[in-house]
C-alpha cells in the first residue's frame, strides 16, 4: 500500500479528507488488495459501483468536464499542464573510503521542469586522483537500491586532503525531458558530463568532455 500512502503524502492529504475509495484496474478485484485498502482507509467502504476496468476512463471524463466548465460546446477553459520529474535524481556519495554510498538528491521528485540545480561535492579520501559521478533515480537513501542511470569520472585531480577538492555538480533537465549531468573541478576547471534521453532515461548515457 506504499503507492497509496505516497499519493496521499504528495497531495498533502490525510484519509479524513477522502470521501470515496474507487477501485480501478483488474488487480483491485483481488480480495487481499481490497482488505489492505480498507485497512489503510480505516474500514471505509470501498466504492464498487464502477467497473474497475472502466474507472480510469470515467475519471478522465470527469476531469474533462471540470476543465471545460460544464460548457456543452466542449470548449475547454484556459488551463496549464505542468511537467514534473516522476522520481528523484541524484548522485552516489560516501562520507569516507569504504563507507556505503548514499543517494545525494539533486532534483527531488515532483520538481517542475525545465529545471537546473547545482550542488558542490568533495573527495571522500586523501589524495584522491579520480572521482566517479554515478547518477541514480529513485527514493532510497542508499544509492545501490535506486535505478542506476550511468556514470562518468573526473581524473588527474591534484593531491589534496579529503574534502578539500570541490566539484560543482549540475543537473539540468530541459523542456524535452533531456537530462544532462556535469561536474567541474573547481580548482583546475576540468569538466565532464553525461546526457540521457527522456525515454525513462534507461538508455546508456552519452559521456562528454566539456569546456
From TrEMBL:
Q: Which UniProt keywords apply?
A: ATP-binding, Nucleotide-binding, Stress response
Q: Which GO terms describe its molecular function?
A: ATP binding; ATP-dependent protein folding chaperone
Q: What is this protein called?
A: Heat shock protein 70
| Keyword Nucleotide-binding appears in the UniProt entry | yes
* InterPro entries referenced in this protein's UniProt entry, alphabetically: ATPase_NBD, Heat_shock_70_CS, HSP70_peptide-bd_sf, Hsp_70_fam
